[in-house]
Amino acid sequence: MRIVVTGGAGFIGSHLAQALLGEGHEVCVIDDLSNGNKHFLAGALSNRRFQFVEGSILDRPLLEKLLENTQVVYHLAAVLGVKNTVENPLKVIEGNIDGTRNVLELAWKKQIKVVFTSTSEIYGKNDELPFSEQSDRVLGPPQINRWCYATAKALDEHMCFAYSDKGLPVTIVRLFNTYGPRQLRLSMEVSYPNLSLLH
């Protein structure tokens, strides 16, 4: 298949892109390098089935062009990091919501399967463990910038569910405090010594 990975030069996306190449797929990565690093893809750059595009998913004409003849898009691109959330909430809100809208609208137009990466942050302060897909969201007040990332990602999930209801094949994966090789430590970010996926 031809697969597009948004945010594919990032910590998780670069591993995914290389794994997909290893399975024999044609892989296109789009990344604006705000959190990613092209060097993470050094092993893939010489592969004839790999394409790297430095650009933003907010650039709708570019994204539309890249999605031509694509069967699956893994949407990992996101504006993240505690520093961004605290200091520039508008960047976080617009970057995540508008970017995901572009991916979903174009995928719907072309009937491309979407795998969307969400976050455990959507649960907020809920302490009813273990979480499930149906667990409540418990957030602080909207005037506290800390909650803008969780809210934006939850709205992204709402859009995914809405397009799924229309017939678009969509899978949502909620990542929980991932860590490992190639992880960039964003300013003010906290790392946690566990890795799990919502099942």
TrEMBL record:
One of the Pfam families matching this protein, by short name: Epimerase
Cofactor: NAD(+)
Name used for this protein in its record: Nucleoside-diphosphate-sugar epimerase
Entry keywords, A to Z: Decarboxylase, Lyase, NAD
InterPro entries tied to this protein: Epimerase_deHydtase, NAD(P)-bd_dom_sf, UXS-like
Top-level taxon of the source organism: Bacteria
Start and end residues of each NAD-dependent epimerase/dehydratase domain: 3-182
